[in-house]
Amino acid sequence: MKSSRLRHTPEKIFRPLGFSFAAASAGIKASGRPDLALAEITDGATAAALFTTNRVVAAPVEVGRASLAALVSAAERVRAVVVNSGNANCATGRPGMRDCQSVCREAARLLDARPAEIFPSSTGTIGVRLPAEKILAKLPELIAARSASERSVCAFSRAIMTTDTRPKIASARFWITPGKRAEGVAKIVGKSVTRPVTILGIAKGAGMIHPQLATMLVYLFTDVKAGAGELRRMLREACDTSLNCISIDGDTSTNDTVLLLASGASGVGIRDAEVRKKFVSSLTAVCSSLAEQIVSDGEGVRHVIRLQVAQARSRDEALVVARTIAHSLLTKTAWAGADPNWGRILAAVGRSGVEIDAARLQIFIGGQKVCRGGVALEFDERRAHLDLTRAVCDVRVELGRGRAGVQFLTTDLTAEYVRINADYST
Amino acid sequence: MKSSRLRHTPEKIFRPLGFSFAAASAGIKASGRPDLALAEITDGATAAALFTTNRVVAAPVEVGRASLAALVSAAERVRAVVVNSGNANCATGRPGMRDCQSVCREAARLLDARPAEIFPSSTGTIGVRLPAEKILAKLPELIAARSASERSVCAFSRAIMTTDTRPKIASARFWITPGKRAEGVAKIVGKSVTRPVTILGIAKGAGMIHPQLATMLVYLFTDVKAGAGELRRMLREACDTSLNCISIDGDTSTNDTVLLLASGASGVGIRDAEVRKKFVSSLTAVCSSLAEQIVSDGEGVRHVIRLQVAQARSRDEALVVARTIAHSLLTKTAWAGADPNWGRILAAVGRSGVEIDAARLQIFIGGQKVCRGGVALEFDERRAHLDLTRAVCDVRVELGRGRAGVQFLTTDLTAEYVRINADYST
After folding, report:
1. What parts of chain B have a pLDDT lower than 70?
2. What is the mean pLDDT of residues A108-112?
């Protein structure tokens, strides 16, 4: 078995078998930039998805969630994903639901599929009717243009952008040499064939730049063979340590969606424990790369903070502390100024709700211990300041309560963020 | 019974009987500004206090909490409050505790009291040793200077400031004409005498301007006669709807303290239901005024938002929603731009954890309904924008779940806030 590889750049993308992509400009964005994207799977794909936990959800989240549930219970497959940017189709009531359904219906008609087999996504302004007629008019051209080329993948990644400054793509491939234990590929007869399994991830950012624009969309395409239940478990595993461990501003969008689609076209099944392990690790690597790309492209972000909370009693407890630190305006603004102000971190830990004992707390900034037992330590402030000026800086908090921990990616809060988000034009 | 009166300004302050005040410059602040304050009660005062819920607490909070507990259980009284600004005496470990105790001990010696009768407070930088010797050297002068004058009250209010741009004082007085029911004043024999009861509140802000400066301190002085248990209940009642319903940046300080001291020198007791009601209402008015002064003096604050969350199942539920809205970076930055972006409010309500039904939500900005049933309404955007440019703007969210509600004061988040808090000088 060869080692697996991970690619972050938009060039030389590993592309999974069975998928084709396309993009178009439907005129939803006032700028005229591409705002409509398609991923199509000729033979269909099994699917699993994670949706926003926000109680206010956009029409496509309601429709997509219901369609997926129906497909899974009938053991049927997703035929295509249709994404528009520029409009979130949220807070649009019944008309918004009908708009979303009409897009799915028309795409299904053109692809000779059923509406439930089309998975919809929207991202953009909240509270404005989706210009469905513009999408309907563009669908034939979009569908006709689909291809498996790298160029089409890139076009998809750009068309789903709203306020992202760059597309976000990560891909991974690993190789399976069928052996006795590789049950999933045991049907390859005669000689030992090395077969690749590929995962391609495309995302748009959680950075919320323009007023009313806010959403993280992540699409994961793979050619592994796996049932919906298994996909769901693996997706959760991969996201728990990656996409669920990031925060830019603490706001959860009404449209957040992570979708994993498996075409099965590699011929490699997931039942073998080693294949499964390899797959989950590659999927996690792709999700982690996308998570980093999303965070570092957050609006106004100058520094990414790789926050480690260690010595917690449980992972959940560590997450609570990490989130409290990551959401504190005082820690975030200190990081914007590259200020090694550990007192603010200490205060955030103290109000996290976790019953910490200050006398057991330790805090590290960029490798230096700056606080021991909740008390100030002598440290090289100049060096800590320099560490915090780097693109990525490590901050570590040890709670002295147990052995669990978490790594969490977050950002500073700059005046630029406020300017971008406060900018109002009548 | 005459009607009660409330005063917000530093001039014409109602002053309760039994208290004297003083301030001095001990050299803790590099600026040389006053940084040491004293309130003394010759005959002692009963006391109740609310402390920060942060698990990391400063030395004076630990010492003050223990002293109060000891005094209350022994039915003894507080003789003085000694406050320093410029240093929080937090994250200073055992030496910090000893520093705090030495200040209490010396003040007690000079006032012929016991150390537990001296209530300490500190506010300022975290993680730096308290220069106790500077305080000890200044205490004799401070104590000698005490007086009941308005000037001394103002000096106290300025000496506890850190990054506040103005002192925060509110005072209220009400009059009691003893009748049959006024049990507390029934001992006044012979003729009907109208007697005043006075409450004086002095605060410093929760606005956190300089790195590592962070604390809300509130001192409430009254000449009513009441036991510690009764004071505690009334303090909670008054704070629940005032000081506990404000948020600037969501961070809770390690030193936050609200202290209520009752000298009893008015001769009016609290047992009569009407006196109690009048007292609680005046105390609430003083706390509400201080809350407003604190919020509007928050750093970088341009607009105060008077947020009302209505139609909740319980007050706690309304508070959860209010806090989520008040802490959302997206809503706060929208307010900074006077942007009537109700989509962000809707999204914040949705992720609050309360099981709201979006179809029952209504949102009002400055009196206009902007969202009904979770869906966009036509409204006068220009007018909403203008409303949001005012110093105080009302934002109302109706959850459609019940009859409980809460009013919550919060602020916008400006680029100025970030600049102030990110400003780092090596």
Report:
1. 1-3, 9-11, 178-192, 206-214, 250-252, 423-426
2. 98
Q: Alpha helices of B146-272 — where are they, by DSSP H? A: 150-159, 228-240
- Residue B207: predicted pLDDT: 57
User: Domain A304-422 - what CATH class?
Assistant: alpha beta
What is the per-residue pLDDT across B368-391, written as a single tens digit (0 to 9) for each? 999 999 898 999 999 999 999 998
Mean pLDDT taken over chain A: 89
**Helix (H) / strand (E) containing B316:** helix B315-327
**H/E element, A261:** strand A257-262
d(CA B383, CA B390): 11
Residue A329: its pLDDT value, please?
85
Is this complex's ipTM strictly greater than 0.90?
no
Q: State the maximum Cα–Cα separation within chain A, in Å, rounded to a whole number.
A: 71
Specify the 3-state DSSP secondary structure of B85.
Answer: strand
CB-based burial label for B66 (10 Å; 0-12, 13-18, 19+):
exposed
Cβ contacts of B194 within 8 Å, gap of 6 or more: B2, B175, B176, B177
- Asked whether the beta carbons of residue A421 and residue B343 sit closer than 8 angstroms, the reply is no
Please report residues of B whose CB lies closer than 8 A to that of A381. 426
- Quote the CA–CA distance of A320 and A30 in Å, as a whole number: 40
Give the pLDDT score at B67. Answer: 96
Evaluate if residue A32 carries a pLDDT over 60.
yes
3 state DSSP class of A330: helix
- Asked whether the predicted pLDDT for residue A187 surpasses 50, the reply is no
Beta strands in B193-303 (DSSP E): 195-204, 217-222, 246-247, 257-262
Whether B347 sits inside 8 A of A92 (CB atoms) is no
Active site residues of B: 215
Element (H, E) at A327: helix A315-327
Task: Report residue A211's pLDDT band, with 50, 70 and 90 as the boundaries.
Answer: very low
Distance between CA atoms of residues A136 and A20, nearest Å:
20
Q: Which residue among A337, A417, A422 places its CB closest to the CB of B339? A: A422
A 10 A CB-CB count for B144 gives 10
Model confidence band, residue A416 (pLDDT cutoffs 50, 70, 90): confident
- For residue B282, the 8-state DSSP code is H
Asked if B183 has any chain A CB less than 8 Å from its own CB, the reply is no
Alpha helices in A128-219 (DSSP H): 132-144, 150-159
User: What are the catalytic residues of A?
Assistant: 215
Judged by CB atoms closer than 8 Å, whether chains meet at A212 and B344 is answered as yes
The DSSP string of A324-353 is HHHH-HHHHHHHHTT---HHHHHHHHHTSS
Task: Assign domain B5-296 to its CATH architecture.
Answer: 4-Layer Sandwich (3.60)
CB-based contacts of B53, cutoff 8 Å, min separation 6: A351, B252
Map tokens 């996201």 to a residue.
A239
- At residue B23, what is the residue type? A
- Are the beta carbons of A351 and B251 separated by less than 8 Å? yes
Instruction: Give the integer Cα–Cα distance in Å for B150 and B173.
Output: 15
Give the range among A36-45, A192-201, A241-250 with minimum mean pLDDT: A241-250
Output helix, strand, coil percentages for chain A, rounded to the nearest 5: 35, 25, 35
Banded model confidence at residue A253, pLDDT cuts 50, 70, 90: confident
* SS3 (DSSP) at A417: helix
List residues bridging with B392 in a β-sheet. B304
pLDDT, position B211: 32
Cα distances (angstroms) measured from residue A247 to each of A298, A304, A315: 9, 10, 17
End-to-end CA, chain B: 60
Domain positions in chain B are 5-296, 304-422
C-alpha pair distances (Å), A188 with each of A4, A199, A250, A270, A271? 21, 21, 48, 15, 15
Cα A24 to Cα A27: distance, rounded to the nearest angstrom: 9
List, for residues A82-91, the tens digit of each pLDDT value: 999 999 999 8
